[in-house]
Specification:
Layout (H helix, E strand, L loop, with lengths): L7 E6 L2 E6 L10 H15 L6 E6 L10 H6 L1 H21 L4 E5 L2 E3 L1 H7 L3 E5 L3 E3 L13 H9 L1 H10 L3 E2 H7 L4 E3 L4 H13 L3 H13 L5 H16 L2 H11 L10
Helix pairs in contact: 1-3, 4-5, 5-6, 9-10
């Protein structure tokens, strides 16, 4: 009997960790095994200080087509609970990590696939990608952080349009709306993502983490609260080896070589 392929592949290239969704025959739709495997992989890298950049990508013809409808059709309520519980836990861990998270997106990103890329720190997208929030077309509300992230990225009015109409849109639309940072030819997607991951992995990892948290929390803070949070984070970063390295490199007119701590 042919061994069953794992639903998710965790790959390491030095400080770069790649989480590759591996259900290509189902366009990487999330079922319970994939959700559990995703959480296990994120838990592994979240406790590894040597991870300084994370890439999320999908095998086959698309990034992710959303939740697995076969699972949800068989037992809608329990299926949703069993998928979303580990998935949400994984997303919280990724958001709390210092390492920047890059979504490498191609083919299709629908439903939870679109929600997932919204939660990344940077989105590298291939030309020709098709996107759709899609939930309303199935008679359900969104999940995987879409209601939190989408209004922050595109504004409330546009977020409601995307969510309520459930229309498909293109990679060029995603770039215009700020849902993608960069759109490249499919042939260049892997190389462009690798170059970006290598650049980020060579950066000041603790400062990245502080910046991620400050940006994401800013809309929930008053100005005095945000100023206090910025002061606290800056003072903490000022005590790191990377800060000393950066300041010294500036004075020496050299490029800093950050250690990530």
């Amino acid at each position: 009997m042919k061994p069953t392929a794992p639903p998710l592949l965790l790959e390491r290239d030095g400080p770069i960790a790649t989480l590759r969704f591996n259900r290509p025959d189902a366009l990487n739709a999330i079922d319970v095994p994939l959700a559990n495997a995703f959480l296990a992989a994120v838990q592994t890298i979240a406790t590894d200080a040597s991870v300084r950049a994370v890439v999320l990508c999908g095998n086959g013809k698309g990034f992710m087509a959303g939740g697995d409808l076969a699972t949800l059709r068989a037992d809608p309520v329990q299926g949703a609970i069993d998928i979303l519980t580990p998935l949400n836990a994984a997303l919280l861990l990724l958001a709390q990590m210092n390492a920047p998270v890059i979504a490498q997106v191609h083919g299709v990103a629908a439903g939870a696939g679109l929600s997932l890329l919204l939660m990344a720190d940077y989105v590298m997208m291939a030309e020709g990608t098709r996107l759709n929030l899609a939930y309303i077309n199935l008679g359900t509300s969104c999940d995987v952080g879409a209601s939190w992230a989408l209004p922050r990225v595109v504004g409330l009015r546009k977020a409601l349009e995307i969510a309520l109409l459930g229309d498909a849109f293109t990679a060029d639309d995603a770039l215009r709306l700020g849902l993608a940072n960069r759109v490249v030819p499919m042939a260049d997607l892997q190389a462009a993502t690798t170059a970006l991951a290598q650049r980020l992995a060579a950066g000041p990892t603790l400062a990245y983490g502080a910046m991620k948290r400050l940006m994401r929390e800013s809309m929930d803070h008053t100005l005095p609260e945000q100023l206090a949070a910025e002061k606290k984070a800056f003072v903490q970063c000022a005590g790191t080896e990377d800060f000393r390295t950066g300041v010294e490199a500036f004075h020496q007119r050299q490029s800093p070589r950050f250690a990530g701590h």
